[in-house]
Amino acid sequence: MRYFKLMISKDEVAVVPGGQMSRCVRLLTGFCCLFLMAAGLAQAEENRFALVIGNSSYEKIGRLGNPGRDADLVAKSLEAVGFEVSVHFDLDEDGLGKVLDDLADRAPDLDVAVLYFAGHGIQKDGENFLIPVDAQLKSATSIERETVSLRSFMEVMEEVPISLLFLDACRNNPFAEHLLSQSSSDGRSAGITRGLAPIRTVGDMLVTFATLPNSVAKDGAGQNSPFAKALARHVATPDAEVSVLMKRVTRDVMAETDGEQRPQQLSQMQTEFYFKRTNAAAPETDDQQTLLAVYPGSVSAGEEVSVLADVPQQCAPDFFNITPSNRVTPIPTSYFKTVELGGGKIRYEISPGSRYGLVVEEADEKGANRIGFFCSMGPALSDQQKKEVLRRINGQLAQNEMSGTIGSDPERVAYHFAEFKIN
């Protein structure tokens, strides 16, 4: 596949000869305009139920500091917005099974169901499992016997019209480290990976991981994890549709962790949902309709950059990286994993485990790199028009205008950029 490089200056765009695109691409970007969805359900008419679990006191590996406090914090925030909350601490295998059975009994009568789990989770062969406090997990074969699969909860919640799962269960996990070490010493693969595995949602279901798949989340240096604090804070925000609300949660977690942890949402929701509704006619701003996720905020050579962008189907995005010296590298959309989300949206994503990794190399330019993409709202652009658009966008970026539009209808081009640092 051929590609070209551009060098942008204040007054001109010069073409730099290119060659074959390597499998390990360097840098990347994302922009997204989300459609407004159908009208949301009225809060007062919903039968809302939340199952909240905080597992801290693990018998074999010791105590996690924050899950119990996290569960209490999230439970109180959900009660304040009209949920009936069933909160549980330090559940063993039997206890996890009982709350799953109770949720299954309630599901047919619910309009909205929430699951929040804080504690340890583990993945094996791409399947996620929640770990009870009495688990021993002496070998990989004991995972299915001593844990409860996340899929079991999802199958129950699929029966509910709207279901939301929040998994603060990707924390540094001695179980996973032990099993990885064991399989390594045996010279075989046990199918174990750090963090949790990506999943596929069904219907109006939103699943949020506290951090990216295959990554580890922070338990938090204070009284609560960064994810629990951000979630509890924003649940109380009036008239914020859940997809908008979770962008704010993501922003806060990344800010607190200096870009080292980014929550990820997986969803095919086509129905709007609001935790707290006071004004049914409240409009969303363009900024709220935009999703751009680049993780982590600071990287060194050998580390990967992850990018996620949700765009409407009529948008054909052009992805670029712009270095501190204004060198531009286009990234073909074929390098992204694409998923149809429903509601007229497509997700473009490159993350660890994707088809192509975005690996930072020693030769990559150090400093604040700007990454993003533009999307023509009208006819497809020629290469010469793209160069002109990039030149104009670069002028906007120089003024710290990281998102906006170029031109006017019918040839308007929307753009959105962000920065991350190469050390």
In terms of topology, how is this protein built?
Layout: E1 5-8, E2 13-16, E3 48-54, E4 57-58, E5 62-63, H1 67-79, E6 84-89, H2 93-106, E7 112-118, E8 121-124, E9 127-130, H3 143-146, E10 148-149, H4 150-157, E11 162-168, H5 174-186, E12 192-193, E13 205-209, H6 226-235, H7 242-256, E14 264-267, E15 292-295, E16 298-299, E17 306-312, E18 318-322, E19 327-331, E20 337-342, E21 345-350, E22 367-376, H8 383-398, E23 403-406, E24 413-422
Parallel strand pairs: 3-6, 3-7, 7-11, 11-13, 16-24
Antiparallel strand pairs: 1-2, 1-19, 4-5, 8-9, 8-12, 9-10, 13-14, 15-17, 17-21, 18-19, 18-22, 20-21, 22-24, 23-24
Domain Caspase family p20: 46-174
InterPro entries: Caspase-like_dom_sf, Caspase-related_regulators, Pept_C14_caspase, Pept_C14_p20, Pept_C14A
GO molecular function: cysteine-type endopeptidase activity
